[in-house]
Amino acid sequence: MNAPANDATGGTVANKPYDETPVDVGLIALQASRAAKAAREARALASQDAANAGATAKTEDKRAPDSMFIPITGSIAPREILRWLSLGWQDLTGSYLTGVWFGVCFVAMGGLLGFVFMNAPAYLMAMISGFLLIGPFVCVGCYEISRTRERGEMPRVKNAALAFKKNTKNIAIFAALLLVLELLWGRASLVVFALFYQGGLPESTDVLRAFMTLQNVPFVIAYLVVGAIFATLVLVTSVVAIPLMLDRSTDAVTAALTSVRVCLASPVTLTLWGCTITLLTLLAMLPAFVGLILVGPWLGHATWHAYRALVPKAS
User: Fold this and answer.
1) CB-based contacts of 70: which residues, under 8 Å, 6+ apart?
2) Domain-by-domain residue ranges, the chain?
3) Angular region, 289: left φ>0, alpha ψ -120 to 50, beta rest
4) Residue 302 to residue 134: CA distance in whole angstroms
5) Which of 43, 131, 246, 250 has its CA 20 to 30 A from that of 194?
6) 260-314: per-residue pLDDT in tens?
7) At CA 268, angle to CA 267 and CA 270, rounded to 5?
């Protein structure tokens, strides 16, 4: 028989029987393995979440704004047009060797316009629309030059020529939209010739005579009204659209809506701006389109500064 054990105070305590229940070592090891595996999976999931969060943040920096209503400056005074032209001229003179290539493109387009007028005047309005539509895309290089100078950096021809790659998809979508307007404009001009021009399909000299001598007043009025309508549509949808897509990687719809809102906020100023672009372009085309070497890039730089004035920088 076992004797009672003494406690720390000298008393006795009864002996306690040992727990003779067998321990399942394999079960304990399995549970420990499962716990370790769960911990590893939890750490891996946390790392993946952190990586996804970082990738999402980078993507959000590059994508278009969530809101389709980008803040605009509001009403702009007409006198700002002179400031845009002045700043554009500074960019032109400060980087002309870089931007001269874009001026050559404008001259080439002007030469094509003259060729069409002399050989197929019925398509003149369509070609003018094409000139107005392609012009802003050629000006993307000028926008990039002004944008680079704005940051205090030296513009390069290669970077300016490839600037459209910063938002190729949306610029292409916007180009398709303007192409539809061009096709409609061309079709409308043919309808005007068919309905209002007397004497069949005219030659280029006939068209000039009609405008200069007002021999066919209904035709002249209809031709100018149709041209004004489509030119207004082009201006309203594109006045800041392409600079906005270049600057903020905005989608085409948001860029077009922003242009419309800008025009509605400053209708007088933007109307005068459109007239200024048209007048300077026509004057530059008079000396065999050579003037476009200067005027084309100049208006491109000025348009960038107009965009900066009409749409505040993103905070």
Assistant:
1) 244, 248, 250, 254, 258, 311
2) 98-310
3) left
4) 17
5) 131
6) 999 999 999 999 999 999 899 888 888 778 888 888 889 999 999 999 999 998 7
7) 65
